[in-house]
Amino acid sequence: MLYQIFGYLTFFRLEELSMDDYRRLVLSQDSVKMNVFLQFLFNADGLRELVRAEWMNIYDYAYIDDKIIGMVEKNLPNVADILRTVEKRATGKTSATAAALNTTGEENTHFAETGGLSQSLGVTSS
Predict the structure, then answer these.
(1) At a CB cut-off of 8 Å and minimum separation 6, what does 38 contact?
(2) Distance of CA 91 to the CA centre of its chain
(3) In 3D, which of 1, 22, 34, 126 has the Cα closest to residue 78?
(4) Is 88 part of any domain?
(5) Does 8 fall in a domain?
(6) Is 126 among the domain residues?
(7) Number of compact structural domains in the chain
């Protein structure tokens, strides 16, 4: 149930929450579990590959691409610091790419399948 709530807040209501409120909610939970869950939620490529087809049974594809996955991509720069904090709490470190992340709001940033943040400019995690 908890993950359903976080999924709902992240996919449908994140822009209505302040980032401070979202941060407090996320950080109030077990960091290891939230790290894994947020890695999944903020991996737009993974969402397209793994769940988009199932979501299309319920929602229109344009709604999925624009409102759900598109909002994940749009909001990633806003939540990047939260993701790094959760990753550091969960693992004791942040990935090399997370440390190198430019948080100026560049849209080419995504949460990688291997965990951690990465840039499509060629930065890879080891």
Answers:
(1) 26, 82, 83, 86, 111
(2) 17
(3) 22
(4) yes
(5) yes
(6) no
(7) 1
